[in-house]
Design goal:
One of its GO terms (molecular function) is cysteine-type peptidase activity. This is Peptidase C1A papain C-terminal domain-containing protein. It is a single chain. The chain is α+β, with helices and mostly antiparallel strands and 317 residues long. It is built from six helices and ten strands, in the order αβββααααβαββββββ. A hairpin with a 2-residue loop joins β7 and β8. The longest helix is centred in the first third of the chain and has 16 residues. The N and C termini lie far apart (46 Å).
Length: 317
């Protein structure tokens, strides 16, 4: 158990690393140039949405007991869209690109629906991590601030400037000769391209960039943030028992012997109570045949799996 916790802690430090690293910027000739810069805001620059903290007390004034962002903003179909990350640990990119997509739509009064490219983050955000070997949702949000996202839909969607390039697979616990996310070798990370790779998309890369700001969301204000501005993202420890989730409110048993599976980033689209148990309503990126049509409910208030430690959101410029 001690070894397992030590391994997870090392993995989280990697996934949310705060060291100064090297990333690219675009120069006047639209070529990649290297740039060394801090990965974190200074304290004076950080944009918090309130003061204080806490994982079990929430701002609830005027908020409903049950809330689903898909119903509040029905003309923003991206909110309910479920991605399939394939055999690529890219949830850090998918969750952020998806949340940015939702918020662009929401803050345009549901009139604009550009789909942000997770592929661009995976391939081109070197601060974010190691492509298909995992990364940081925080750095993905910061990439949105510094460089902006181009558009891009699902694998084979033919949508946007840089659509997703990793084929889907099915997440299952048991070993299978089929294309299983857990038994096949991880996909190679596609190379970064500073151009639109979709031949049927007629805007240029430089004119397709969407930029915004981001901020950390304190858990006690998370419900109000979602209600006012749309879905947010978080990152949590995922154990193998969640692979088999189908319905109900998931609560990790601290005494369980289930193996640690991965650090997963997800999009929170609502909350509620089921049989007296408060929960977060979450969109995952394992495809619609996983969980409850791609979503799951996880207990709210006890910070199980450290679900409420790394909440972030942003707004379009």
């Amino acid at each position: 158990m001690v070894f397992k916790l030590l391994f997870i802690s090392i993995f989280i430090v990697y996934a949310t690393g705060h060291d100064t690293k090297t990333n690219y910027q675009y120069n006047e000739n639209n070529q990649i140039k290297l740039n060394s810069e801090p990965a974190l805001y200074n304290k004076g620059e950080a944009k918090w949405n309130s003061y204080g903290g806490g994982n079990s007390v929430y701002y609830t004034s005027g908020l409903p007991i049950n809330f689903d962002a898909r119903k509040r903003w029905p003309n923003c179909p991206s909110i309910g869209h479920i991605y399939n990350q394939g055999n690529c640990r890219s949830s850090y990119a998918i969750s952020v690109a998806s949340a940015v997509t939702d918020r662009i739509c929401i803050h345009s009064n549901e009139t604009k629906n550009p789909i942000m490219s997770a592929q661009q983050i995976i391939s081109c955000c070197y601060l974010c991590g190691y492509g298909c070997d995992g990364g940081s949702q925080f750095e993905s949000w910061d990439f949105y601030r510094r460089h902006g996202f181009v558009s891009g839909g699902d694998y084979n969607s033919n949508q946007g400037c840089q659509p997703y390039m990793i084929p889907p697979c099915k997440l299952i616990n048991e070993k299978s000769p089929r294309h299983s996310c857990t038994t096949y070798n991880r996909e190679e990370t596609p190379a970064c391209e500073i151009k639109c790779n979709n031949p049927n998309y007629y805007s240029s890369f430089k004119t397709d960039i969407y930029k915004g700001k981001y901020y950390q969301v304190y858990p006690f204000m998370a419900m109000k943030e979602i209600f006012d501005n749309g879905p947010i993202t978080t990152q949590f420890y995922m154990y193998r028992d969640l692979i088999d989730y189908k319905s109900g409110v998931y609560q990790y048993d601290e005494d369980s012997t289930d193996d640690f599976f991965t650090v997963q980033s997800v999009k929170i689209i609502g909350w509620g109570e089921e049989n007296g148990v408060p929960y977060w309503l979450v969109a995952n990126s394992f495809g619609t045949d996983w969980g409850d049509k791609g979503t799951f409910k996880i207990s709210r208030g006890n910070d199980g799996c450290f679900f409420q430690e790394k909440m972030y959101a942003g707004l379009p410029l």
